[in-house]
User: Fold these one by one.
Assistant:
Number 1:
Amino acid sequence: MDEAERVELSPQVVPLLNPVPVWRARLLVDGGEVDEVARWTVTRGLTVDDEPTYPREGDYLVLARVLLATKQRDQAVGLLARLGTQAAAQGRTASMIEVGALHALALAAAGDQATALTTLAGALALAGPDGYVRVFADEGPAMARLLSRLATTQRAGRLELTDGIPQHYLDRLTSAATPGRARAPSSPRLDRSGVAPPAEPLSDRERQVLALLAAGKSNRQIADDLVVVLDTVKKHVGHILDKLGAANRTQAVARARALGLLP
C-alpha cells in the first residue's frame, strides 16, 4: 500500500476514483485498527445517512465495516441495503455480489438469520456462474459459518427463494473461508497438455454448454439454443467452471481445448 500510494496518478484520474485509500482502509479494518479507520471515514466526509454514489461505493463499504466492528449493526444493515438497491438498479452485478455478501453478514450479526440466508443465496446465485470465490472467502470465519447454515437450510428444503446453490460451490467457498482448511489440492496428474484433467468428467449436457461457450454465446443464447430456462444454463456453467478449475469462461474454454474437450 505504501508503494501504491507513492505512485503519481495520471492527471486523467479523478482523486475519488483512486482505489488505494480504500484498499488500505480495508486492510486496517481486517487488522483490527478500527479507530484509525473510523477517523478516516470522518476525513472522507462519510456519514451513515448519506445517499451513496457509485464512484464512492468502496468508501461506503469501508464505513459499513466500521459500523459492524463497532456494533452499530442496524445502521450497517440500512447502509448496505441502500448500496445494494442502487447496484441492482444500475445492473452492476459485481457490486451486487460484493454488497450482498457483506449485507448478509450484517443481517446475521443483527440477528435476522432468515433474511441473511436469503440475501447470501441471492449473491451466490449471481456469483456461481462466474466462479467467484475471494469476495466470499475474504470474509473469513463469519462467512464460513453463514455458508454452512445456508447449506443446512437448503438441504432441509427450507430455502424457498432460490432454485438452489450447487453443493460443490458451497463446499468450495466454505473451505476457502475457513482458516486452516483453505489449501492447495494435492498435485493432480497432468496430461501431455500440462493441464490437470477434471476430477469429475463433464456430462453430455455440460459438453454441449461448453461448446456453445466456446462459440461465444451468452447464457441467454445458450438457453434459447438448448430450449431450457436461463437458471439451468447458469447451473451448468457453474459446474463446468468448477470441474475444470477455471475462474471464468475464457479460462474454462482454454483448459477444455488443452484437454481435447473442444476442437
Number 2:
Amino acid sequence: MTNGDNEAHLRHVSRAMLHGEHCIFPPLDASGHDSEDPIAQSKLDNGDGEWKYVKEILGWLIDGENYTIQLPLEKCQKITSLIKTIVKKPRCHLKKFQVLAGKLQHASYGIPGGAGLFSPIDMAATQAKDNMVIITEHLKAMLLDWHALVNSFKQPPLQFNFYLQTGQTT
C-alpha cells in the first residue's frame, strides 16, 4: 500500500484508509443503520490492521518487501490431495469436481495466462451426465499438469523484480 516505513507516514496512510472506508460505509452513528461497524474492532484487536511486509490477502500470501505472492501451503496441499483423489477414479461427482475447479480458478491467478488452462475443466463439467464427470485420459493428464503447477507453489516464491534487476529474460 505504501513505500514508506516512517511511523508518522504509516499512521497518516492508515487514517486515510479508514477515512476512505468510512466514506463508502459511514459509521453507524452517521448512517442510522443498526448493523455492525464496517471496520471490525475484533479484527483490529487480532492484528489484522497492523503494518506488516507479509500478509494474507484474499487467500494469497503477499510479501511487499520482496515483491512476491504465494499460495499458502495448506491450500496447495488441499488442492493436490483433491486432484490425487479425483484422478484415481473413472468418474467424479459433479459437485466435487466443481469444488476442485473453484480451487484451481483461485490458484490460476498466480499463473500468467492461467485462465486459459480451464477449457478442459469447463468442457468436462458441461458434459457431466447424471451429476457425474467422466475422467478421461485427456482430463486426467490435464489435472496431473495442474497438480505439478500447484506443487510448484509450495516452493519459495520467485521475486517479481528478479528479472528486472539481473536483466535476464524468461
Number 3:
Amino acid sequence: MVGLLVPDKNGNFKDIVLGFDNCKSYLSAEEKYFGAVVGRYGGRIAHGKLILDGITHQLDINNNSHSLHGGTGGFHSVVWDMQQVNDATIQLNYASADGEEGYPGNVKVTVTYSLTDDDALVMHFKVSTDKKTVTNIFNHNFWNLNGEGCGSVEQHQLMIDASHFLAVDSSLIPVGMEAVGDTPFDFSAFREIGERIHEHHEQLLYGNGYDHNYVLNKGVTEQPQLVASVIGDQSGIRMDIFTTEPGLQLYSCNFLKGLHQLKCGAKDEFRSAVCLETQHFPDSPSQASFPSVILDAGRTYRSETIHKFSRTM
C-alpha cells in the first residue's frame, strides 16, 4: 500500500501511510516492509527452526539469528498478480512454491483491499496449502495520522484492548506473557504513544521502544471486533481497528533512521510512524501455548482486518 488519503478535522485530505514514489526505493530501503503484505510467516521464528510432524525445516535467517517476516525472499519482496475487482476493490494473488524460504507446501494466497462508503479500509486474507505448513500473514503499513512527513507519532493517542503483552528477550523472541498494568505497556485507556516510551524499562530497552505483541482480550474471533484506536494529535483523524486475529504488534518505528526520501519529500525519520499489525503471535510455531498457526493440507486460512476512519473535533 503506497498511500491512503483521509480527511482531517478541517476537511483537508492527508496521506496517512508512509511510502515512496518509485519501486526501487521499496526494494532498496533498509526497512523492507513499507506498506507490504508480509508472510509466509509474519513476525519472528526463533533461529528459523520450524518443526512439523517431527521434521525440521530450516527457514531463511534474516534478523540476527532468527527468521523475520518470511525471510529475505518473503511475500514483501515478490511480484503479486493484481486485478481491480471494481472501483473500490483490488485483489492480489501469489503462489508460493513448496520450499520457498524453507517453508513446506505449495501455498496460494489471496489478499483483497476494499474501500467502503462509510470510510473504512477492509483487508481480507486467504491462504490454502497442499501440505501442512504455517502461516501468519498481514499488512505492514507505517501509519502517521497527522500525514506522511508530519513528524513524530509520539503524541498520537493510542488505546489497545489488551490486558497482557508478550515479553521478549534481547533478540525480541517472546519469553512469556505479562500484565500491562502499572507498566509503560498499558494502553487500556487512551494515552500518548510517547508518554512512557523513554522510561528505563528492560522491555523498552530491548526494543528501543515498543516492538511487542499485545494479547488481545477477545482472542481469535470469526468476525472482526474492535481492538485498538489511534488518534492523530494534529489532524484529529481517528482510526479504529477491528480484526479476527488474536494479537496486535505495536511497533513504534524505533529503527527508522531518516535514510530514505518519502513520496512527500520528507525523510523516514525515527518514530515518524507507528505500525499496528493484526496477527497471530510471533514465534508461535515454537511455543505450544500460543494460538495455533498450523495450516493443514486442504484447509483454508482466513483473516480480516478493518480500519475505520472518523474525525475528532
Number 4:
Amino acid sequence: MGTFKDIFNDLDTSDEKSKAGETMLSNIKNTMSDRVATKVKFNKLLQDYKSEVLPYIIENFDSLNDDAQQSVTRINNFFCGLHFLVHMAEVAQKSLFQIEKDNSEKPLPLSDTFNINQSGTFRLIQTSCKAFARRCDQRNGCHGNFKTYISSHLQKHKMNFPLQPLNGNRFNILFSNAGYVFFFHREILEFLKQFNSNNSLLKSRLHDIQEPFYIAGCKALGLVSTFITTPLWNVLENKDIHICDMNIRYLQLVNFLNDI
C-alpha cells in the first residue's frame, strides 16, 4: 500500500494543477484478483485510502448524503472464480489425507513412492496420470499400450482417452482425473497384471489400485467433479453469465455443501 501511495504522489508531483494521482484514484471503481489474503487486505486498505482522499477532490463532498458518499467511495472487489477450483483441490487433498489417517485401524499399505504427507488417493491419481496419460513419463509410462488395451471401452462409451497430465493443468484436473481413474480402475488392474512390467512406476500402480480405500477416494472426488466443480467451471466460463450474477450461485453452492 505504501508503494501504491508513492506512485500516486509521484503523479501528483509531476502535475500539481490537475492532481492526476488523486483524480485517478477517484476513478477506481473495481478491482480484480485471486483470493490471496494479502490482496483481500489490500482491497480494504485501498477502500479506506479512497475514502480519505475523495473529500479533497470532490467539491462539496461533505454536503452529500450518506448514500451518495457511499456510491462514489465504494470499490467493488471481484475475484477469479477459477482460482476457487484450485483451492478446492488443495483442500480436498488435505481432507483425503486426514480421512485416510483417521479411518484406518492399521496403517494403509504404502507403495515405494510413498510420501508421508500425501494422501494415498492423490498418489494413485498422480501416478496413474504419469503412467497412462499422453506425454507424461516417457521412460516408465505406457500410454500407447494402455490406450490400446481399453480401446473397446472407449468406443463403447464414445469417449476419447480421458486421463490428462496433472502438470500444466490447474483447474478441475484433480477431480476429473479422479473420476476417470475410478471409472477405469478394473481395467487398470487387469492391464497391470497382464503387462508384467518391473519398472517402479507401474509396480506402484499395481500396488495402490488394489487398495479399496484409495478407490473410494477416487470415487468421492469424481462425484465432486460431476456435481460441483465441472458445473461450476462451465458457469464461470460462460460469457453470457455476468460476474455480478455469481453471488447467488456461490450462495447456492455454500448451502448445498452445508446440506450434505
